[in-house]
Amino acid sequence: MTDVAGQVRAKTITWEDPLETARLGAAMSGLEYMRAIADGRIPPAPIAAHFGMRWERVEPGEVVAVAEPDESLYNPIGMVHGGVAATMLDSVIGCAVHTTLPAGVGYASVELKVSYLRAIHAGRGEIRATGRVVKEGSRIAFAEGEIRDVDGKLLATASGTCVITR
């Protein structure tokens, strides 16, 4: 497909079998699993490839992911689609919760509230998403997240709830 200027734009996305990755993670604590992904010992989730997202820091109850949005993530009005921010925030919130879980225990997002504060544009450098656990529970965990640009400006915030699955 060509754009209005006749230029061809393309993006190739590759990933590894996510079910095999999940099987590897089931035998590790959430913290060990997330650190193995961050260190490149285990492949990341396929969604990370779509956004060019990588894990910068993984600590108990807190994670940081970074990505540099490109124009392939734009919506029809010329800015990065809000779903990119929502996906990154859902990811860091869930993964922060995951770092607190023992081996064989998982989670699923049950609620996410996102507030968009500034538009995100391609070509302005990396964005950094931080997720942190607010309250751990045996069945439900609460966490919050934020996205900042390279200058530290707050772009979006979120709060989320995850159900713990055993």
UniProtKB/TrEMBL annotation:
InterPro entries named among the record's database cross-references: ACOT13 (IPR039298), HotDog_dom_sf (IPR029069), PAAI_dom (IPR003736), Thioestr_dom (IPR006683)
Regarding protein family, the annotation reads: Belongs to the thioesterase PaaI family.
Q: What is this protein called?
A: Uncharacterized domain 1-containing protein
Name a GO molecular-function annotation: fatty acyl-CoA hydrolase activity
Listed NCBIfam families: unchar_dom_1
Query: Organism, per UniProt?
Result: Amycolatopsis australiensis
Q: Highest taxon of the source?
A: Bacteria
Provide the Thioesterase domain boundaries: 78-155
Q: Which UniProt keywords apply?
A: Hydrolase
